[in-house]
From TrEMBL:
GO cellular component terms attached to this protein's record: membrane
Any Pfam family hit: ECF-ribofla_trS
InterPro entries given in the database record: ECF_substrate-spec-like (IPR009825)
UniProt superkingdom: Bacteria
Organism, as annotated: Geotoga petraea
Coiled coil, from the record: none
Keyword ATP-binding: no
Listed name of the protein: Uncharacterized membrane protein
UniProt entry keywords in alphabetical sequence: Membrane, Transmembrane, Transmembrane helix
Length: 261
């Protein structure tokens, strides 16, 4: 990395850290939180490419966990957020044509993994709705989720299931719509490749945090209820990143950074 790239990397690591550390909203039922750090990861990856995006995402997010009282998450976050940033940069940053085939196979694999994951989660929630007909099981889960009635428990499970199903259908349609509608305004920012990269990075984050939480806390059920919140974090981060990038472009602070890696 050149001196210019090191400066950019340091700047974006700091922005990811601040956005993650300062703006924290605890997730109900789990021991995690959502934040605005993903917006800065998207920003770093789109402006400066996969390496700087990955370093900013991994180091900045891990530091926020380390100093924010979530030290147990620092190492998983370092790995998860690095690849999250790298994916966005790999797909969205100007890359050579020979990488197109890699992008296609990664996209196909990501869609297949998400479909399998979504089906598994949906089936798990269906089984859970059957299980809580047993009073003892329902009482145990109500205590874990801090709800007072069985009806509230059923409603919560159904809402999570609906959110995941709707997101699985709506997100691809939104990506296609934005790409077709807005690519004439900016072929780089709204290219199908850029939007796919962001989507895959969000799916990567959701799935890997889910399984990491199972490993750390030894509970398969509760991490499912954090999935909708991670979808909100991903979607919000995408919107915030685009608002910032459009503002920077209007002010002509940044041009598309080529050769910064």
């Amino acid at each position: 990395m050149r001196v210019k790239s090191i400066i950019y990397a340091g700047m974006m690591i700091a922005l990811v850290f601040v956005a993650t550390f300062v703006i924290k909203i605890p997730i109900p039922f789990t021991q995690g939180y959502i934040h605005a750090g993903d917006a800065m990861i998207f920003l770093a990856s789109i402006l400066f490419g996969p390496l700087i995006g990955g370093l900013a995402g991994g180091i900045g997010s891990a530091m926020a966990d380390l100093f924010g009282g979530y030290a147990i998450w620092a190492l998983p976050t370092l790995i998860i957020k690095f690849f999250m940033g790298y994916l966005v940069g790999f797909f969205g940053y100007k890359t050579e044509k020979r990488k197109k085939s890699k992008k296609f196979y990664i996209s196909l694999s990501g869609v297949a993994i998400w479909a399998i994951f979504g089906i598994w989660v949906s089936n798990t929630l269906n089984n859970l709705l059957v299980d809580i007909q047993d009073k003892e099981r329902a009482t145990e889960l109500m205590k874990q989720m801090q709800v007072t009635t069985q009806d509230a428990l059923v409603s919560t499970i159904s809402n999570v299931q609906t959110t995941i199903i709707v997101a699985s259908i709506i997100i691809p349609l939104i990506i296609l719509f934005l790409s077709l509608l807005l690519k004439n305004k900016d072929k780089y920012l709204f290219s199908f490749s850029t939007l796919i990269g962001m989507t895959l990075s969000g799916l990567w984050m959701i799935i890997t945090y889910f399984f990491t939480e199972i490993l750390i806390y030894g509970n398969v059920i509760l991490p499912i209820f954090g999935i909708p919140w991670n979808i909100v974090q991903f979607g919000g981060g995408l919107v915030i990143a685009y608002i910032i990038i459009f503002s920077l472009k209007r002010l002509k602070i940044f041009k598309n950074e080529e050769n910064t890696q």
